[in-house]
From TrEMBL:
This is Coenzyme A biosynthesis bifunctional protein CoaBC. Its cofactor is Mg(2+); FMN. Catalyzes two steps in the biosynthesis of coenzyme A. In the first step cysteine is conjugated to 4'-phosphopantothenate to form 4-phosphopantothenoylcysteine, in the latter compound is decarboxylated to form 4'-phosphopantotheine. Catalyzes two sequential steps in the biosynthesis of coenzyme A. In the first step cysteine is conjugated to 4'-phosphopantothenate to form 4-phosphopantothenoylcysteine. In the second step the latter compound is decarboxylated to form 4'-phosphopantotheine. GO terms for biological process: coenzyme A biosynthetic process; pantothenate catabolic process. It comes from Granulimonas faecalis. One of its GO terms (cellular component) is phosphopantothenoylcysteine decarboxylase complex. One of its GO terms (molecular function) is metal ion binding. The gene is coaBC. CTP binds at D103, K113, F148, K162, K166. Pathway: Cofactor biosynthesis; coenzyme A biosynthesis; CoA from (R)-pantothenate: step 2/5; Cofactor biosynthesis; coenzyme A biosynthesis; CoA from (R)-pantothenate: step 3/5.
Length: 226
């Protein structure tokens, strides 16, 4: 049993992860998206599964294969992602929201392909999406919630503000203006920010960042492996 705990420190833990971008429809053939590859969230899900957790990965559109031992739920829009996440909140012990959720969505997507001559494509009215991470943390259904922050300036100030305003336990702050931490990069340079302070990690692969995140979560939950 001791060996099993050392190898699978997250055995018996239900982990919910969001990853990837979302696509917000303008009409049936056009959408608003962003540059997220989904790699960070997939690495977080893969590492949790490796450590023995039951993992549900709610993923926006990506080209990545589902990691071994992970159950994936595919979604397209921010609204779909929110529904999928909130439906599974009562099940989850830990949630990690790594998705690059669209902040705005078209107010009234067209049900037909818009024609240039209709003159509606020059400007599209947008409305703010719901904040999935903040809603999940506020629901109180998940014992430990991790968020990410992508910033290009004032990294730690913005990260601390998000930690507080979203009510999360741990915030992974990513300076995406750095070449070694940009969207689509194979490495990341992040800080782990919580109420106790900010820990700077080295420039690491996404798999290494995922391992450091889980080491921290396990330490906070008193579930240290070997
Ligand atoms: N997030 C979310 N739902 C949204 C927007 C963001 O769940 N509608 C989550 C992301 O998954 C991430 C965290 O909130 O874990 C921070 O996302 P980020 O884009 O850095 O922050 P925002 O609060 O959206 O603020 P801004 O984009 O203006 O910096
Ligand atoms: Ca955002």
């Amino acid at each position: 049993a001791v060996l099993a705990l050392r190898d699978r420190p997250l055995a018996g833990t239900c982990v919910l992860v969001t990853a990837g971008p979302t696509h917000e429809a303008i009409d049936p053939v056009r959408y608003i998206a962003n540059a997220s590859s989904g790699k960070m969230g997939y690495a977080v899900a893969a590492e949790a599964a490796r450590r023995g957790a039951e993992v549900c990965l709610v993923s926006g559109p990506t080209s990545l294969p589902c990691p071994a031992g992970v159950t994936r739920v595919d979604v397209v829009s921010a609204a779909d992602m929110r529904d999928a996440v909130m439906a599974r909140a009562p099940w989850a012990d830990v949630a990690v929201c790594a998705a690059a959720v669209a902040d705005y969505t078209p107010a009234a997507p067209a049900d037909h392909k818009l024609k240039k001559a209709e003159g509606r494509l020059g400007s599209v009215e947008l409305v703010e999406t719901a904040d999935i991470l903040a809603g999940l943390a506020a629901s109180g259904e998940v014992g430990y919630v991790v968020g990410f922050a992508a910033e290009t300036r004032d990294l730690l100030d913005n990260a601390r503000a998000k930690l507080t305003s979203k009510g999360v336990d741990l915030l992974v702050a990513n300076d995406v203006s750095r070449p070694d931490s940009a969207f689509g990069s194979d490495t990341d340079h992040v800080w782990l920010v919580d109420d106790a302070g900010a820990e700077e990690l080295d420039t690491l692969t996404k798999a290494e960042v995922a391992a450091d995140i889980w080491d921290r979560v396990q330490a906070d939950l008193g579930r240290e492996g070997g």
